[in-house]
Design brief:
This is PEP-utilizing enzyme. By secondary structure, the protein is α+β, with helices and mostly antiparallel strands. It is built from 19 helices and 15 strands.
């Protein structure tokens, strides 16, 4: 990472500003009611703004088919949510693409009039929803679950080409709708959290304690982890653990068929997948199967859990978290005057009833890792027709078509409205993807002009783009000591395991210190194995911080340069109380 010190800190875009992108790409913006700024490849003008590589959600780069999903989510979805809620200083976020890799930036609002008008609108919007958050969120949950029931029940095999296209259009509309809901709720909760943060600062309390005051609520992902640990225990009980050591899903299934109790255990796995398997390992990624389609990830996790016979006591861990939560709240209240205690209690109660720490994990199961699966299902059904018609050579070739190209191919009986030579186009794009995907390790974690702060509460609290983070980026080089946010207390020394993508978490071994760009929900199972965690990005409400606290392991997030400084095999000391990471050698 090259940093130049001038009047401001600039990390040059270099070759990433050349506007290079997938061959044959022609941007076609669909109807976006609140689109502040479109997704685009980098240009030289972008060097005047700050951009963070989103290795949390898009570590491996993105295919053309996934580009529409990304636009629905981080570009349109954030801008829609910020507009609906009326967040005063931000119009949401926007994406830039370097090769096939995703960067994220802010759409700031600088107009005093706009900020004032939005502040008025925010107050009217937020009040009644925060007052009864449970009913507000339950209404959206019911809407989303009804949509899944509808789309999962479609008989795609009975559809002709026109019906497939119409159903695909519906799934796209639902996908966009769900991301609008996602960021509406997320901005509402983030703003409420920031208000608590401001009050705690004014009261002279330690802001780093806030997430701990909100911890301890059960989520779908912790329940998923419990089930995975249970399946590991059942594998021992049924005597089939050896069969799970096979390297592939197919090999595991074959080995289980040779065991007397193997089919019974596989039946329990299928029952688990029926409830918890409608999820993928990355957000808004078309080319990755769900766990239910191909259970490589849960099988790999269970295999690693089998190396720890004692398992993980979720009940005890939750009791510890709740006890610490109550103790820390009591300590904070005891230091306040009666008047300040009343203000503190009201703000804390609001944040517990509209709990961002809980919701940020819980909603992922319903939206982030689930909502693109209807689009994937209809896309693959359409691909099978295009293969049968001789338009594509293989079903997976559809991942190298942009959304509008696929819809054009389904228009009419012969697909004449789509690209003229899909085979050559797919080949060129696959080569482009492979070239840039292989270069992922070279790309800098941040580029452009580094500010002192950003005004988007999601970028601050989830991605950890705090003033302290920017100060670290400006000042820090590759050193033996890194600083970040102290996310989970405790000190540990261990061997580092640098993991750059969720699909590589099977590399993690019992007792490792996990070092990564940042984690999302699909990483949760490894927290039952690792002894500590360090990330490049992440703030008080990041998945990493939340889960590390739930599992009780030392953690430092938002170091800025952990993955470019620490190497797998290094001995590392994490001080989760001070937010310091030392590389011992």
């Amino acid at each position: 990472m090259t940093i130049t010190e001038e009047s401001s800190t600039v990390i040059p875009l270099g070759e990433y500003a050349d506007g290079d992108f997938y061959p044959g790409y022609e941007p076609r913006l669909e109807s976006r009611p609140f689109l502040a700024e479109p997704l685009a490849p980098f240009t030289r003008a972008d060097e005047g703004r700050f951009w963070m590589r989103d290795s949390q959600h898009f570590a491996e780069g993105i295919t053309p088919a996934s580009m529409g999903l990304l636009e629905d989510a981080q570009t349109w979805g954030t801008q829609y949510g910020a507009e609906i809620v009326g967040i005063p200083p931000t119009a949401g976020m926007v994406n830039r693409i370097a090769g096939v890799h995703v960067y994220l930036g802010q759409c700031p609002i600088t107009s005093i009039w706009q900020m004032g008008a939005r502040a008025e609108r925010f107050g009217a919007f937020a009040g009644p929803r925060l007052a009864d958050f449970a009913s507000y969120w339950a209404g959206y949950r019911a809407e989303l679950e009804a949509a899944y029931t509808h789309f999962d029940g479609l008989d795609v095999d009975a559809m002709d080409r026109a019906e497939l296209r119409a159903a695909l259009v519906d799934t796209i509309a639902f996908h966009r709708r769900a991301w609008g809901v996602h960021f509406e709720v997320m901005y509402l909760l983030a703003a409420n959290y920031v208000a608590l943060f401001g009050l705690v600062t004014d009261l002279g309390l330690e802001t780093g304690q806030i997430p701990k005051w909100l911890a301890g609520e059960e989520t779908a992902y912790l329940r998923t982890d419990e089930e995975l640990w249970r399946l590991a225990g059942r594998a021992r009980e049924l005597g089939v653990a050896g069969a799970l050591a096979e390297p592939t899903v197919e090999d595991v299934r074959a080995a289980l068929e040779r065991e007397p109790n193997g089919p019974a255990w596989w039946g329990e796995l299928e029952a688990f997948l029926a409830v918890w398997g409608q999820r993928t390992d990355e957000t808004a990624t078309m080319d990755r199967p769900s766990w239910a389609e191909h259970p490589a990830t849960p099988l790999g996790t269970i295999r690693e859990f089998l190396t720890r016979p004692e398992g993980h006591d979720f009940a005890a861990a939750r009791r510890d978290v709740l006890a610490e939560r109550d103790r820390l709240v009591d300590e904070a209240r005891a230091s306040l005057t009666e008047e300040d205690r009343t203000r503190f209690d009201a703000a804390l109660a609001s944040n517990r009833s509209a709990n961002f720490v809980w919701w940020n994990e819980e909603h992922n199961f319903l939206i982030d890792r689930r909502v693109h699966l209807p689009v994937r299902r209809l896309t693959l059904a359409a691909a099978e027709r295009l293969v049968a018609d001789g338009v594509l050579d293989a079903r997976e070739d559809v991942f190298f078509l942009f959304r509008h190209e696929l819809l054009d191919l389904l228009e009419g009986p012969d697909g004449s409205g789509g690209p003229g030579d899909c085979r050559s186009l797919v080949t060129a794009r696959r080569d482009y993807h492979d070239h840039w995907s292989a270069r992922g390790g070279e790309l800098p974690p941040v580029v452009g002009t580094v500010p002192d702060a950003v005004n988007d509460p999601i970028m601050t609290e989830l991605f950890g783009l705090t003033p302290e983070y920017f100060a670290t980026i400006k000042a820090q080089r590759a050193t033996a000591s890194l600083s970040g946010f102290p996310a989970a207390r405790g000190t540990v020394v261990g061997t580092a395991r640098v993991v750059r993508a969720a699909q590589d978490i099977d590399q993690v071994r019992d007792g490792d210190i996990l070092v990564c760009g940042g984690t999302t929900t699909e990483w949760t199972p490894v927290f039952g194995l690792v002894s500590g965690c360090v990330t490049d990005t992440g703030g008080t409400l990041s998945h990493t911080a939340i889960i590390a606290r739930e599992y009780g392991i030392p953690c430092v997030v938002g170091t800025g340069v952990a993955t470019s400084t620490i190497t797998t095999g290094d001995r590392v000391r994490i001080d989760g109380d001070r937010g310091v990471v030392e590389v011992l050698g």
